[in-house]
Structure prediction request, 409 residues.
Amino acid sequence: MKVFNSFNSTLGQTYLNTFKGLSKEVWWLSLITLINRAGTMVIPFLSLYLTTDLNFSLDDVAWIMSAFGFGSLVGSWFGGKLTDKIGYYKVMYVSLILSGLLFIGMQYLETFALISIGIFVLMAVADMFRPAMFVALNAYSKPENKTRSITLIRLAINLGFSAGPAIGGLIITTMDYNGLFWIDGISCMIAGVVLLNVLHPKKSKTLDNEISLNPKSAYTDKFFIIFLLTMVIFGIVFLQLISTIPYFYKEGVGLSEFEIGLLMALNGILIFTFEMPLIYWLENKTHTKIGLLAFGLGLTCLSFLFLIMDPWLGFVVIGMVLLTFGEMIVFPFSNSFALVRAKRGLKGEYMALYSIAFSISHIFAHNLGFHLIDAYGFLKTWSFMIILGLFGLGLLIYLKSQMKSQNNY
Prediction:
């Protein structure tokens, strides 16, 4: 018993040590992200809301989700520009408050045209937050802590994500979809109020304010452009998680909304439990960031094989576990790669392009996924995602060979 208790104590202390050295500003930023993300239960259920509550066709849903992606792209680009001009604090605050109001208003839109416009405007405002948050994270983190700081933010996102879908599924079962929009909107505004009180420039302390004396344009950085292309590909494959995969769980596997919410919550629980120790362990190895990205993308491709095998719940769970571990590796190290690369030029521009890569993924991922399912079914759709992911894997291997002399990548 003493040996068991000693092992548990050592394991617990090791886990806690992975959080040491992070600034209080990073912790506050994580709390704000947690509050904001806890209410984003609308997003995983958006495709179900549009098809079951508003009776839209898959073709309509595909185009609405493309409007989602276009709004995200515009918001990320504009957010990066504003961040370089007026600073990250003001951009984050305005984005949180306005997106909260827009989330509440979305429930009153019912036609295809209004919902398409509404989701475009909502995402344009909401995703102004992303490049500003990345620049803030860079400023509040010591150089040696950046990947772990990113991981802490992701833990906050996924802690909210793990609770959100489960609660969201319960709300849909007992009430209706409108409550989700209210919770999402109110949580965004609460996050804005917290930001106003704890991260005001007069109260917070920057730890990394390095400025390039001869800033290079991100658009001329060929390695960064190849990296962005691989992130677009990864995003198209991974983002099936929030649109076509929940639809597959309902129509292909026969799960209820509540069961789908629990399965989606598994993603967040795994990330909350394992991501920080995993990143801490991987950071102490000799692997390059690009090499780790390739491994993460490979796991993501492998997860779709289990969706192809059989609509058995066990395979579905294994697929979710593999997809989650792929996500755990790709997002922190891709964020870290972009932050380090951003020191060459305007940080807002670099981080805006990084955000835009995933916005482009949103434009194509959901539209492509739903159209493929509508035309060819689930099996061929998942096969296509595997092939696309393998192409991205090839690009990462090429990029690694080209950057082998740059050890910090």
About this structure: The chain is about 80% helix and 0% strand. The longest helix spans residues 313-342. The two ends are 45 Å apart (CA to CA). Residues 32 and 327 are 22 Å apart (CA to CA).
